[in-house]
Recover the amino acids of this structure.
């Protein structure tokens, strides 16, 4: 059994002259997975390795029968099919890393996974409730924009909604990623995201709100940056006591807490709301307004259209049924 959760291959008997380059290669290999994915895989691998150790069978290279038995045991313990599928992906990743045959390619393992999905279902977990236009207006109405904290949170909520940003994308924004245009609005460059681990980048256009509309993300963002004196570096920053802007950027968890705290202050139940509620709110509101799917996808950057369509179906559930009673 390997001591390392997801070992990186090293050339056997490689000359000492290559040691520095091999260490560099190992660092690049470590970057092949997103940090969150690596942490999840490492946790899953430890579960499998411990299971194998208790039974006296090798974890790597693992026999397909051992993997099939492990996955079945996890299903019997009550784990959801999505978790069991991730366990299998971690086992496969560990074997690929050491150039061992992947036991998850076995037909027996594939059948066990298929049977688990059929027996236990693949319904997705309940998603974060969308913060769409009506509740968003309630939240915005309660903000005190005479304070820097109020200006920051207004800009964060409106931009997160208007650009359908993930909380991780909001907190990694720098001023250098923003391009304000006089006539049209704002271009937001997203350097990397959950679905863009190779950092190809994407640009989202955020137009000015219609005249007389006080829900303008572009103006709210400009007002925050000017009032806070932020000209470079992190856009959304922590506040210190006394309504003083700090230098440190917010964390993803901070965004979730801001959404919950501001929603509670507006009289909304914050239990089902999270940082993802802003992104979900845009998709839901756009679908309800009849915006075309391709235009919604241009903003949300969903690569998995079935996921996007789940939001659209939820927003238009009553539009496609006949009125009988």
């Amino acid at each position: 059994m390997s001591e390392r959760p997801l070992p990186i291959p090293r050339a056997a008997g490689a000359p000492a002259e290559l040691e520095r380059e091999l260490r560099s290669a190992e660092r690049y290999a470590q970057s092949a997975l997103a940090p969150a994915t690596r942490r999840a895989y490492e946790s899953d691998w430890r579960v499998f390795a411990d299971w194998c150790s208790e039974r006296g069978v090798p974890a790597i290279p693992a026999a397909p029968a051992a993997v099939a038995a492990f996955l079945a045991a996890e299903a019997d313990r009550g784990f959801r099919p999505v978790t069991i599928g991730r366990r299998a992906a971690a086992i496969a990743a560990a074997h690929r890393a050491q150039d061992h045959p992947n036991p998850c390619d076995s037909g027996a393992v594939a059948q066990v996974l298929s049977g688990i999905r059929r027996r236990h279902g693949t319904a997705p977990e309940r998603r974060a409730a969308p913060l769409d236009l009506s509740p968003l207006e309630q939240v915005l109405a309660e903000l005190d924009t005479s304070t820097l904290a109020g200006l920051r949170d207004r800009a964060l909520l409106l931009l997160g909604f208007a650009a359908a940003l993930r909380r991780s994308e909001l907190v990694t924004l720098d001023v250098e990623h923003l391009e304000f245009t006089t006539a049209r609005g704002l271009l937001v460059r997203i350097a990397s995201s959950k679905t863009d681990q190779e950092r190809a980048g994407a640009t989202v256009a955020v137009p000015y709100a219609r005249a007389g509309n006080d829900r303008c993300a572009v103006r709210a963002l400009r007002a925050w940056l000017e009032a806070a004196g932020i000209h470079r570096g992190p856009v959304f920053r922590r506040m210190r006591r006394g309504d003083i802007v700090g230098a440190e950027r917010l964390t993803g968890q901070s965004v979730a807490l801001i959404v919950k705290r501001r929603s509670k202050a507006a009289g909304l139940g914050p239990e089902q709301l999270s940082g993802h509620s802003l992104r979900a709110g845009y998709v839901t509101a756009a679908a309800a307004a009849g915006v075309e799917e391709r235009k919604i996808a241009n903003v949300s950057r969903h690569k998995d259209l079935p996921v996007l369509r789940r939001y659209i179906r939820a927003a238009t559930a009553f539009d496609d049924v006949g009125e009988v009673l």
Notes: The CA atoms of residues 97 and 182 lie 51 Å apart. The radius of gyration is 24 Å. The first strand starts at residue 178 and ends at 180. The mean pLDDT is 85.
